[in-house]
Amino acid sequence: MTEPVMTRPDMTEPVQDIQESLEVLTSVPRLKGPLGRLADVLDRTLLALAVIALIGLSLTVLLQVTSRLLLPFTVAWTEELTRYLFIYMVSLGAGVVLHRHRNVNVELFHGLLGFRGRAAYLALISLLTGGFSLIVLPEAWKFAQIGAFQTSPSLRVPMIYIFLSSVVLFASLLFYSVICTLEGIIALVRGEQPASEVH
C-alpha cells in the first residue's frame, strides 16, 4: 500500500492577487507607440546603469572592509567612491521606479478606486511630480555648474560630474512624469481595457 503523495498547493494565483491589490496603479496600461518604446529603452538603459553602480558600490565596500581587516593600510578613496556610486544609483533608478510604480507609499484609499479613479490619481500624482521636477531642474543645473571649480578630496574628480547626478535625477523624473501623466489621461479617456490588452 502506497501513501498518497502530498503536493504543494499552487500559490501563484493568491500571490499574484495580493501583488495586484498592493500595486493598483499597475492596472493602468503602459503608453504605446514611439514614446512608449523610447520610455522602455530608457528604462532598460537606466536600470542597467543603476545595477552597474550597485555592483561597483558593493565591490568598493568589500575592498574597504578587506583593506581594514587584512592590509596594514586603509584605502582612503573607497568611502568617497561608495558615496558617489550610491548617489548615482539612486539618481539613475528614481525615474524607472516612478514609471513602474514602485515608490514606497501608504495606500490608504487606492483599493477603493475604480479603474478611472486610479487613472486620474496616476495623472494627478505624475503631474505634481513633473511640476516639482520642472521647478527644481534649472536649479539642479546651476548647482552642478558650481562643481566645475571643485575637485573631490581623495579621487580628485571634478565635482561637476558628481553634482550632475541631481540633473540626471530630476530630468528622468520629469520625463517619466510626462509619460505617466499621458498614461493616466489616456486610460481615463478610454476607460478600462480587457485584461489581454493590459501589459
Describe this protein's structure.
Helix content is 68%, strand content 0%. The protein is an all-alpha fold. It has one domain. The protein is elongated. This is TRAP transporter small permease protein. Keywords: Cell inner membrane, Cell membrane, Membrane, Transmembrane, Transmembrane helix, Transport.
What are its keywords?
0% strand, mainly alpha, 199 residues, transmembrane transporter activity
Average pLDDT across residues? 84
Spatial gap, N to C terminus: 49 Å
Listing every helix as H and every strand as E from the N terminus to the C terminus, the arrangement reads: HHHHH
The geometry reads as: elongated
Oligomeric grouping of the chains: single chain
Helical amount:
55-70%
Binned strand content: under 5%
Mind summarizing the main beta sheet?
A: none
What is the structural class? mainly alpha
